[in-house]
Amino acid sequence: GAVVSQHPSWVICKSGTSVKIECRSLDFQATTMFWYRQFPKQSLMLMATSNEGSKATYEQGVEKDKFLINHASLTLSTLTVTSAHPEDSSFYICSAPSGRDNEQFFGPGTRLTVL
Amino acid sequence: AQSVAQPEDQVNVAEGNPLTVKCTYSVSGNPYLFWYVQYPNRGLQFLLKYITGDNLVKGSYGFEAEFNKSQTSFHLKKPSALVSDSALYFCAVRPLYNQGGKLIFGQGTELSVKP
Is the CB of residue B51 less than 8 Å from the CB of residue B57? Predict the structure, then answer.
Protein backbone atom coordinates (compact mmCIF):
# COMPACT_ATOMS: atom_id res chain seq x y z
CA GLY A 1 0.00 0.00 0.00
CA ALA A 2 0.90 3.66 -0.22
CA VAL A 3 3.32 4.97 2.40
CA VAL A 4 3.48 8.44 3.87
CA SER A 5 6.36 9.54 6.05
CA GLN A 6 6.84 12.53 8.33
CA HIS A 7 9.97 14.15 9.62
CA PRO A 8 10.81 14.74 12.35
CA SER A 9 8.83 12.32 14.47
CA TRP A 10 9.22 14.62 17.45
CA VAL A 11 10.69 18.05 18.05
CA ILE A 12 11.20 20.29 21.04
CA CYS A 13 11.77 23.98 20.47
CA LYS A 14 11.91 27.26 22.35
CA SER A 15 9.06 29.72 22.28
CA GLY A 16 9.42 32.18 19.43
CA THR A 17 11.29 29.89 17.07
CA SER A 18 9.93 28.35 13.87
CA VAL A 19 9.64 24.64 13.21
CA LYS A 20 9.30 22.88 9.86
CA ILE A 21 7.58 19.52 9.53
CA GLU A 22 7.88 17.49 6.33
CA CYS A 23 5.32 15.11 4.85
CA ARG A 24 6.40 12.82 2.03
CA SER A 25 4.55 10.35 -0.12
CA LEU A 26 7.16 7.64 -0.62
CA ASP A 27 5.78 5.49 -3.42
CA PHE A 28 3.12 7.62 -5.05
CA GLN A 29 2.53 11.16 -6.15
CA ALA A 30 0.11 13.40 -4.31
CA THR A 31 -1.21 16.63 -5.75
CA THR A 32 -3.11 17.10 -2.51
CA MET A 33 -2.08 16.49 1.08
CA PHE A 34 -3.92 17.22 4.28
CA TRP A 35 -2.57 18.55 7.56
CA TYR A 36 -4.26 17.70 10.86
CA ARG A 37 -3.73 18.66 14.44
CA GLN A 38 -4.59 16.36 17.30
CA PHE A 39 -4.76 17.00 21.03
CA PRO A 40 -4.34 14.10 23.47
CA LYS A 41 -7.08 11.51 23.12
CA GLN A 42 -9.07 13.78 20.85
CA SER A 43 -10.09 13.69 17.24
CA LEU A 44 -8.12 14.99 14.32
CA MET A 45 -8.79 18.58 13.40
CA LEU A 46 -8.22 19.39 9.75
CA MET A 47 -6.03 22.46 9.51
CA ALA A 48 -5.49 22.86 5.80
CA THR A 49 -5.38 21.23 2.41
CA SER A 50 -2.01 21.46 0.71
CA ASN A 51 -2.15 21.80 -3.07
CA GLU A 52 0.86 21.12 -5.26
CA GLY A 53 1.87 24.22 -7.18
CA SER A 54 -0.72 26.50 -5.63
CA LYS A 55 -1.77 28.02 -2.36
CA ALA A 56 -3.01 25.89 0.50
CA THR A 57 -6.64 26.01 1.53
CA TYR A 58 -7.03 26.70 5.24
CA GLU A 59 -9.94 25.67 7.44
CA GLN A 60 -11.86 28.32 9.27
CA GLY A 61 -10.05 29.57 12.34
CA VAL A 62 -6.60 28.41 11.26
CA GLU A 63 -4.09 31.25 10.89
CA LYS A 64 -2.37 30.90 7.54
CA ASP A 65 0.45 33.24 8.56
CA LYS A 66 1.06 31.11 11.62
CA PHE A 67 0.98 27.76 9.87
CA LEU A 68 2.78 28.11 6.54
CA ILE A 69 2.25 25.31 4.06
CA ASN A 70 4.35 24.68 0.98
CA HIS A 71 3.66 21.88 -1.48
CA ALA A 72 6.63 22.28 -3.77
CA SER A 73 6.62 18.87 -5.40
CA LEU A 74 4.32 15.95 -6.01
CA THR A 75 5.83 14.03 -3.10
CA LEU A 76 6.53 16.68 -0.48
CA SER A 77 4.48 19.08 1.59
CA THR A 78 5.88 21.09 4.49
CA LEU A 79 4.16 22.71 7.45
CA THR A 80 6.07 25.48 9.18
CA VAL A 81 4.86 26.62 12.57
CA THR A 82 6.12 30.18 12.80
CA SER A 83 6.95 31.92 16.08
CA ALA A 84 5.84 28.88 18.00
CA HIS A 85 4.27 29.21 21.42
CA PRO A 86 3.46 26.60 24.06
CA GLU A 87 -0.17 26.48 22.92
CA ASP A 88 1.06 25.22 19.54
CA SER A 89 2.31 22.07 21.24
CA SER A 90 0.39 19.23 19.68
CA PHE A 91 0.55 16.14 17.50
CA TYR A 92 0.57 17.03 13.82
CA ILE A 93 -0.43 14.43 11.25
CA CYS A 94 -0.46 14.60 7.48
CA SER A 95 -2.26 12.43 4.97
CA ALA A 96 -2.35 11.98 1.24
CA PRO A 97 -4.95 10.37 -1.01
CA SER A 98 -4.07 7.58 -3.38
CA GLY A 99 -5.73 4.94 -5.46
CA ARG A 100 -8.99 4.67 -7.32
CA ASP A 101 -11.08 5.66 -4.31
CA ASN A 102 -8.73 8.42 -3.13
CA GLU A 103 -8.23 6.55 0.10
CA GLN A 104 -6.30 8.55 2.70
CA PHE A 105 -2.89 7.32 3.83
CA PHE A 106 -1.61 8.87 7.03
CA GLY A 107 1.86 9.75 8.15
CA PRO A 108 3.10 8.58 11.57
CA GLY A 109 2.71 12.04 13.05
CA THR A 110 5.04 14.64 14.55
CA ARG A 111 4.95 15.50 18.23
CA LEU A 112 5.75 19.20 18.71
CA THR A 113 6.58 20.52 22.16
CA VAL A 114 7.18 24.24 22.57
CA LEU A 115 8.88 25.25 25.79
CA ALA B 1 -24.24 20.24 8.93
CA GLN B 2 -22.32 17.11 8.09
CA SER B 3 -21.05 15.18 11.07
CA VAL B 4 -19.90 11.87 12.43
CA ALA B 5 -20.73 10.71 15.94
CA GLN B 6 -19.07 8.11 18.06
CA PRO B 7 -21.34 8.10 21.11
CA GLU B 8 -18.96 6.28 23.41
CA ASP B 9 -15.73 7.91 24.57
CA GLN B 10 -14.56 4.58 25.93
CA VAL B 11 -15.45 0.94 25.48
CA ASN B 12 -14.23 -1.71 27.91
CA VAL B 13 -14.21 -5.36 26.91
CA ALA B 14 -12.77 -8.54 28.37
CA GLU B 15 -10.34 -10.45 26.18
CA GLY B 16 -12.11 -13.07 24.11
CA ASN B 17 -15.45 -11.29 24.21
CA PRO B 18 -17.00 -9.65 21.16
CA LEU B 19 -16.60 -5.92 20.79
CA THR B 20 -18.60 -3.19 19.12
CA VAL B 21 -17.56 0.41 18.57
CA LYS B 22 -20.45 2.55 17.41
CA CYS B 23 -20.55 5.16 14.68
CA THR B 24 -23.39 7.13 13.15
CA TYR B 25 -23.18 9.80 10.51
CA SER B 26 -25.13 12.68 9.10
CA VAL B 27 -24.06 13.28 5.53
CA SER B 28 -26.16 13.87 2.47
CA GLY B 29 -26.12 11.21 -0.18
CA ASN B 30 -24.18 7.99 0.06
CA PRO B 31 -20.78 8.70 1.57
CA TYR B 32 -17.66 6.58 1.70
CA LEU B 33 -17.17 5.23 5.23
CA PHE B 34 -13.92 4.35 6.97
CA TRP B 35 -12.54 3.03 10.22
CA TYR B 36 -9.04 3.85 11.42
CA VAL B 37 -7.08 2.77 14.49
CA GLN B 38 -4.46 4.83 16.28
CA TYR B 39 -1.90 3.52 18.75
CA PRO B 40 -0.22 5.97 21.17
CA ASN B 41 1.96 8.56 19.47
CA ARG B 42 1.36 7.02 16.05
CA GLY B 43 -0.49 8.01 12.93
CA LEU B 44 -3.76 6.45 11.83
CA GLN B 45 -3.86 2.96 10.39
CA PHE B 46 -6.57 1.98 7.95
CA LEU B 47 -8.85 -0.85 9.09
CA LEU B 48 -11.62 -1.02 6.52
CA LYS B 49 -13.90 0.94 4.26
CA TYR B 50 -17.36 0.82 2.73
CA ILE B 51 -17.84 2.21 -0.74
CA THR B 52 -20.70 0.20 -2.17
CA GLY B 53 -21.95 -3.37 -2.33
CA ASP B 54 -22.27 -5.82 0.54
CA ASN B 55 -23.23 -4.08 3.77
CA LEU B 56 -20.84 -6.22 5.80
CA VAL B 57 -17.26 -5.21 5.23
CA LYS B 58 -14.29 -7.21 6.45
CA GLY B 59 -11.03 -5.51 7.22
CA SER B 60 -7.65 -5.86 8.87
CA TYR B 61 -6.90 -7.73 12.11
CA GLY B 62 -10.24 -9.57 12.13
CA PHE B 63 -12.36 -6.43 12.29
CA GLU B 64 -15.56 -5.97 10.35
CA ALA B 65 -18.19 -3.28 10.06
CA GLU B 66 -21.80 -3.24 9.02
CA PHE B 67 -23.25 -0.43 6.97
CA ASN B 68 -26.87 0.31 7.83
CA LYS B 69 -28.32 2.93 5.54
CA SER B 70 -31.67 3.31 7.32
CA GLN B 71 -29.95 3.93 10.66
CA THR B 72 -27.03 5.82 9.07
CA SER B 73 -24.66 3.70 11.11
CA PHE B 74 -21.35 1.97 10.47
CA HIS B 75 -20.51 0.09 13.68
CA LEU B 76 -17.15 -1.63 14.00
CA LYS B 77 -17.15 -5.18 15.33
CA LYS B 78 -14.84 -8.03 16.19
CA PRO B 79 -15.98 -11.47 17.36
CA SER B 80 -13.19 -11.99 19.88
CA ALA B 81 -11.21 -9.08 21.31
CA LEU B 82 -7.48 -9.17 21.98
CA VAL B 83 -5.54 -7.12 24.52
CA SER B 84 -3.50 -5.80 21.60
CA ASP B 85 -6.69 -4.29 20.13
CA SER B 86 -6.58 -1.65 22.87
CA ALA B 87 -6.23 1.66 21.02
CA LEU B 88 -8.11 4.72 19.84
CA TYR B 89 -10.59 4.09 17.02
CA PHE B 90 -11.89 6.67 14.59
CA CYS B 91 -14.83 6.49 12.25
CA ALA B 92 -14.65 8.80 9.24
CA VAL B 93 -16.84 9.66 6.29
CA ARG B 94 -16.13 11.24 2.97
CA PRO B 95 -19.08 12.85 1.24
CA LEU B 96 -19.60 11.51 -2.26
CA TYR B 97 -19.18 14.96 -3.79
CA ASN B 98 -15.75 15.36 -2.23
CA GLN B 99 -13.57 13.37 -4.54
CA GLY B 100 -10.43 15.07 -3.24
CA GLY B 101 -10.43 12.78 -0.24
CA LYS B 102 -11.25 15.20 2.59
CA LEU B 103 -12.53 13.27 5.59
CA ILE B 104 -14.88 14.10 8.42
CA PHE B 105 -13.83 12.33 11.61
CA GLY B 106 -15.75 11.22 14.64
CA GLN B 107 -14.41 12.18 18.03
CA GLY B 108 -12.83 8.81 18.61
CA THR B 109 -13.50 5.89 20.95
CA GLU B 110 -10.88 4.48 23.25
CA LEU B 111 -11.07 0.71 23.33
CA SER B 112 -9.65 -1.03 26.36
CA VAL B 113 -9.40 -4.82 26.31
CA LYS B 114 -8.54 -6.39 29.66
CA PRO B 115 -7.02 -9.86 30.06
Answer: no
Separation of alpha carbons B48 and B34, rounded Å: 6
The SS3 call for residue A68 is strand
B99: nearest CA partner in chain A: A102
Across the interface, of B49, B108, B110, the residue whose CB is closest to A103 is B49
The contacts of residue A27 (CB under 8 Å, 6+ apart) are A2, A3
Min Cα–Cα distance to chain B from A69, Å: 17
**DSSP code for A59:** P
Query: pLDDT of B35-89, one tens digit each?
Result: 999 998 788 999 999 988 889 999 999 999 999 999 999 999 999 999 999 999 9
* Span B95-111, pLDDT tens digits: 766 656 788 899 999 99
pLDDT of residue B94: 87
Contact (CB<8Å) A108/B51: no
Alpha helices, H only, chain A: none
> What was the pLDDT predicted at B52?
84
Chain B residues touching A91 at Cβ < 8 A: 41
| CA A107 to each of CA A21, B44, B105: distance values in angstroms, whole numbers, following the listed order | 11, 7, 16
- B106 to chain A: which residues are within 8 Å by CB? 43
Q: Cα separation of A70 and A14, whole Å?
A: 23
- The residues of chain A scoring below 50 in pLDDT are none
The bridge status of strand A19-25 relative to strand A76-81 is antiparallel
